[in-house]
């Protein structure tokens, strides 16, 4: 039976090959439009029947379907840096500061390229992209219509030239032209969006001076925050009787959109009380606000009242107005309510779930921003070992395995804040579930910008170092660094603490290589690593590895070896390197370190001198023992009499050595 089954399988396989060969000859090689007749001819040629063939329905593929399919087959390389840096290996970052600097540099380059393309479109007319990518093609930003007309005003609005559009509007008003309501509303939208001034260029735009760019780069390289000027900090505010209000008052006819544009502009530029006053005018004129206007007013409600209860009453009034005016709320409406509730004190915890229930009852799918507001309301900070992550667990039970798309600007805050909650409450289980959700589908895109992503992975790694065993920590360390996470000094300190807790200090030399590569070799971290290597006794092999590592660290204290400023020797760092050399049976190198104490005006500890004398005793080097006592006398250590007594008792001394110790002893007595 088995043999007959094998023969039957081979027969089917051969018939399939014949069918495919015949089918390939019949179909045109360059055509993907396989017709029904081609399927039938292929089936007949292979000995089959045309009735057995099921013709599939026609499938219309997207132009980038092949690229999407190939992308789905590729996984992230944990040993490589982020894909955005792989075009130029020279620009692969090593530290979090370089990661941020290079990320901003890339964005600056794109902005510069976009600027030149849009400014000189005649030089970029050829389209080589397949499929066509509209955002890469130049936009026509030059004004084409010069005469005073409504079409010219519409062109300036389309190109977001605020001041030019206002000037054109004034010219039209002076000429007595009648403007359509839609064009005037478009102008109001533009002015209210940008605060009555032209859109500002980005900080890294080509218009930024060379001195400003170099200053920002120098600050990023040195790890210090950039000092922003007052002009950078001042926000655009709503000025009294600005162009938006002036044009609004000149309009012979106003509709709901006109009021909505003005109200949203006032809320955007922090004229909250004036926004509610304008909304009252809208109601007095028996008009109906749209959902975007209500969303803006709800978000501004906490800023017009001081008491929590009054804030919530204002929000309820707005929701009742929406119901009376038959305006259906959307996702942003409920997110605005929940975000405003976060500023309503104890009222929030009694009302947030009711708002969430109303949201789901209306069939509105929550976004990540919704859950972020819920967590902020119901998850309390850890105080006196109180607090739990029950709400986070409920949220993850609801959304685990889901893939989200951005719908709210606050969506990118969910993963960052949820991981902070896991870290504060030391809930490793929920952290794993949260990270699994972040890797689901395209959810990783909602981790935020480069800084937010690094902060998210830093919190996750910090929790792993506290709660997991060292083998699991190292597995995650290899997976996250440097592909998605560039640790700072605190991150490496957490890793060293995990090594110390599990007794795996033998891995410190390996960690030192990463510390040096990521330019984290600053004095505090170097001293901590030296302290760990010098603290306990290990096998001879481990001590030898520690000695090699300590000698490499020693180079960071020597000026001129690297392009970074040399570190300054401290008594602890000198003592630790000396102890490491003694443990590795490298007494000549340890003696060199003792000379550095005097050269750097540092005083060794009594314990180090005792340890050094014990090492000398093993070699029975009486001359170096005397020299050690003489060196101790130069530091005026209080243990000199004990050292002298120990050397006299445990070493065979010559007459000259005894006289030298006697003179040191008398000098010590005089000093006492």
Description:
Helices cover 61% and strands 0% of the residues. With 672 residues, the protein is mainly alpha-helical. Among the domains are: 2-60, no CATH class; 504-596; 603-672, no CATH class. The radius of gyration is 37 Å and the shape is elongated. Mean pLDDT is 82; it is low at 1-13, 26-46 and 202-234.
Strand content: under 5%
Q: From the alpha-carbon coordinates, what is the Rg to the nearest angstrom?
A: 37 Å
- Determine the structural class based on helices, strands and strand pairing: mainly alpha
Mean pLDDT: 82
What is the helix tally?
32
Share in helix:
55-70%
Main sheet summary: none
Uncertain residue ranges: 1-13, 26-46, 202-234
Number of strands: 0
How far apart, in Å, are the first and last alpha carbons? 106 Å
Shape: elongated
Structure at a glance:
The chain is mostly helical and 672 residues long. It is built from 32 helices and no strands.
What's the arrangement of secondary structure elements?
Elements: H1 2-26, H2 36-45, H3 65-72, H4 96-119, H5 150-158, H6 162-174, H7 181-194, H8 210-221, H9 230-233, H10 243-250, H11 256-268, H12 272-284, H13 291-300, H14 308-324, H15 331-341, H16 347-361, H17 368-378, H18 390-399, H19 414-425, H20 428-438, H21 450-467, H22 470-480, H23 489-501, H24 508-517, H25 523-535, H26 540-554, H27 571-583, H28 587-599, H29 606-619, H30 622-635, H31 640-650, H32 655-671
List keywords for this structure.
672 residues; disordered N terminus; mainly alpha; elongated
